[in-house]
Amino acid sequence: MPLADADRELVEAELGREPTRAESALFENLWSEHCAYRSSRPLLGAFESESDDVVIGPGDDAAVVALDDETYATLGIESHNHPSYVDPFDGAATGVGGIVRDTMSMGAYPIALTDSLYFGGFDREHSKYLFEGVVEGISHYGNCIGVPTVAGSVVFHDGYEGNPLVNVACVGLTTPERLVTATAERPGNKLVLVGNGTGRDGLGGASFASEDLAEDAETEDRPAVQVGDPYAEKRLIECNEALVDEGLLVAARDLGAAGLGGASSELVAKGGLGAEIALDRVHQREPNMNAMEILLAESQERMVYEVRPEDTDRVAELAERFDLGCSVIGEVTDGNYVCSFEGETVVDAPAEYLADGAPMNDLDREEPSQPDRDLPALVDPDDGDGGEDDGARGTVDDDALAEAFEAVVGHPNTASKRWVYRQYDHEVGVRTSVLPGDDAAVMAIREAETDAGEPLGLALSSGSEPRWTEAAPYEGARAVALENATNLAAKGATPLAAVDCLNGGNPEKPDVYGGFAAAVDGLADMCAALSVPVVGGNVSLYNDSVAGPIPPTPTLAVIGTKAGFSAPPAAFDGEGTVLAVGEAGGALGGSEFLAQAGGSDRFPVLPENAPAVVETLAAVADRDGTLAVHDVSHGGLAVTLAEMVTGEAGANVALDDALALFDETPGRAVIETADPDAVRDAFDGVAPVETLGEATADGTLSVTVGDAELRYDAASIRDRRAIIERELD
Fold this sequence. Notes:
Elements: H1 5-15, H2 21-30, H3 33-36, H4 41-44, E1 54-56, E2 63-68, E3 71-79, H5 81-86, H6 88-104, E4 109-119, H7 125-145, E5 149-156, E6 165-174, E7 190-195, H8 205-208, H9 217-220, H10 230-245, E8 251-254, H11 259-270, E9 274-278, H12 291-296, E10 302-307, H13 312-321, E11 325-333, E12 337-341, E13 344-349, H14 351-356, H15 398-409, H16 418-421, E14 432-434, E15 441-449, E16 455-463, H17 466-471, H18 473-490, E17 494-503, H19 510-529, E18 534-540, E19 544-545, E20 548-549, E21 553-563, E22 577-581, H20 592-597, H21 610-621, E23 626-632, H22 636-644, E24 650-655, H23 658-662, E25 668-673, H24 676-683, E26 689-696, E27 700-705, E28 708-713, H25 714-720, H26 723-728
Parallel strand pairs: 4-5, 9-12, 17-18, 24-27
Antiparallel strand pairs: 1-2, 2-3, 3-6, 4-6, 7-10, 7-11, 8-10, 9-11, 12-13, 14-15, 15-16, 16-21, 17-21, 19-20, 22-25, 22-26, 23-25, 24-26, 27-28
């Protein structure tokens, strides 16, 4: 994708001459949508990113938040969408590698990954091919480097048929003394490249990620996809730890988008400085590479460090110890960003202009509208015709209800994701206390304590729901934030901070940009209401293909804290009363039920006091009398109750109508408790509490809706929810 004419004119005016071939390519990549956020940056001011716990917010390789005075957590997220379509294994694997190196560049050790994945319809062979390749790539890379993947989400939706999304987040740990940033500090310090040799893979990756996927992308764009080596990454992780331990790093940046040119120019630009780099000194793994290839290749497993001159020999010694390449490629200056090759200057431009000079786009947008209510008779509260399907009068057809329940519970979107997470080594590192498959993972942070001196648990949740944001971008994105916060609260944790991965289609289309902008505002507004600072993130636009644009997909990854590492299970105990807490929104817009049954509806009304609901749920979840907690969201109570049944425990519950069974309003939970009065007292004035029924010890779910009854044993539920495993094994 060549440098646009308007951009070329700006560059020529700044430089006072025509740019060299290498400069043109560097500006093309650094001024691409992927790097410069030209269409999205005007919207990102909506996010609040500060709190007493935020140490470093947006703008660095990863954000940093304080868990206590002596322990910091880092948090970052990135997308590898286009590469994962072209080459699902390597595209997804190198997405993991990149976000792990973002963590390392802050002086942190990576302890956990989350993956949020979006594909076309599960009934399509190409979608299954992409799905299997992406999961294999994530599991191979994560397992090899010893970083557990502990949480995430998987969605199947026709809107991703020609453009899947792979969003990966990473959490790391560091201390105030070990903290490193991506801001160069002093002229005269050396720039040192450590890691794999530079090859020709990943050339033009940033510009490739900033345009729509063409029909022949799987073959034509293969050179733009990087090839990962997780064993080199593992050695780089340990080498980075050694460098940090010895205090050898002044600043650090991982080599991702735009390769060495992107990392080194951004490093010095953040410090208001420049650099002189000799590209000939870069260690390479392919012969006869030219200046542009060395500058822009996105070969993996590489870091660039600012190092004091007297420390370069020691850095080289440690690199050699871990069998990594090491090159002193130049130094920090107080002038321009200058690169030479074979004695010739090939780049000479102000670093800040390279990194931040791209003009922002002023794009037209169309405001999205919500659909009208057109519900199937089974769930239509306004039907009122007295027929056997009249949900408003309590008369529900048994067969129609069973068919709807089975379709929702057995759909790949709401079915078990065990096939995915069983491929991940989610317990490596011996920190994972609550495993994948629950509302949120919980990690043991033994280095930190609560204010009361108790050991600290760190909860993680990530994901989005494109059906919600497709139906109502603003309200749907608010719901995404609330649902992730509720996931944490169901494990007894309160949200601390979040990062987002904002995925959208071609922003030059007013309807696409309007939906994307509304989703950004919705996510920002709910995070602000919940007092959850959004401390960093990633934007991925131009997710269009011959199949059309993707739905607006604001993935959110949230961390929260709690006292201790244990949490109530998401499965029935069999001994308590079953309650539903939280207020249903009375609508089915964006629901899995409507996706299966047809029809349309407005999006549910979200609670006005969401922060109080989340805080109260977290407190109740940690009480002794609480036997089980599971959030209500995707698939509504139908899926929540089905997921809580085990071979040893079930429940007898009753609902007023079918709409209540499939309503997906987030901010709600099913609680099994030995002390229902205490739960009612806790939620008094906060949210309604409804008694659904009693848990049982027979491993059977019995649901009465009006005068209809559903009855399923654990084995039949498990079989219905095993569709992914059954299809792919």
